[in-house]
Amino acid sequence: MFAITTDNNSDLPMTYLKEHDVGLMSLSYTVDGQTYDAHHPMPDADFYARMRAGAMPTTAQVNPEEARRVLEQALETHDCVLHIAFSSGLSGSYQSARIAAMELQEQHPDKQIVVVDSLAASLGQGLLVHIAVQMRDAGQSFQQTVDWCIENRLHVVHLFTVDDLFHLYRGGRVSKATAIVGSMLNMKPVLHVDDEGKLVAVGKMRGRKRALDDLVKRMGEQIGDYENKTFFISHGDCLADAEYVRDQVKEKFGIPDCLINFVGPSIGAHSGPGTVALFFLGKQR
Q: Which regions of the chain carry the CATH code 3.40.50.10170?
């Protein structure tokens, strides 16, 4: 059996990672001068409370030393390692993992390390990890799992909305004028992640509920012939809204299982409190 590793921008619960033996590289984040990471975290609810109080967190990518540590640990007990990285379109973490993998591959020519650019974020990346775990546990080979991830990563659909455009403006995702006008008119953007793994606005709705309903509407347009057995939702400390979307999806599409978790701080620093994101397999983005 091969090892699977990822980074904390996959937003999978720590209990899931431990249960399924998934190694974790950590991106760090700094709030009010104090630095945290996945191994020494600030509770998610506290993080969003600090943001609502005016804190403006900053984030850092996975560094090569952290990547090397996690991959070396996986190589101690496995001959093959699959690392599923946060989108290269949003961070340099993929490149850090590649550098570490190439160095270790030279030192261990009898072993195999593959770093897959998920071109995904949050539980979109997490969904790719989840499917890789299922394939591994079902007895699929290392190469079959790698091939599936590469061939299907652009079928992991991301749909999300944010409550406050300021955070997207601060991260350079929307213009200042868009943020100001959108806030005045109570416009809520609907965004997705494109083929290059970057955030792209695909619509805007007046009011929060309409934006949440639009996520579900767009899911109906994009799900195609895929038979999803589960879908994932991440949220920026707005569980009731996440559960509203979950219930709408279950009612309309009959998908039985849903995993809901926080948008972690490394992404939440840029999307802000009130983010709701929906992930599933569907037509190519």
A: 3-152
Distance CA 213, CA 238 (A): 15
pLDDT in tens, 5-35: 999 999 999 999 999 999 999 999 999 999 9
Task: For domain 3-152, give the CATH number.
Answer: 3.40.50.10170
| 60-89 pLDDT per residue, tens | 999 999 999 999 999 999 999 999 999 999
Chain centroid to CA 197: 11
How far apart (Å, rounded) are the C-alpha atoms in residues 66 and 68? 5
CA distances from 31 to 19, 60, 119, 268 (A): 30, 12, 27, 12
Pairing of strands 58-60, 257-262: unpaired
Tell me yes or no: is domain 155-281 CATH 3.30.1180.10. yes
CA distance 162 to 270: 10
Give this prediction's pTM.
0.95
pLDDT of residue 46: 98
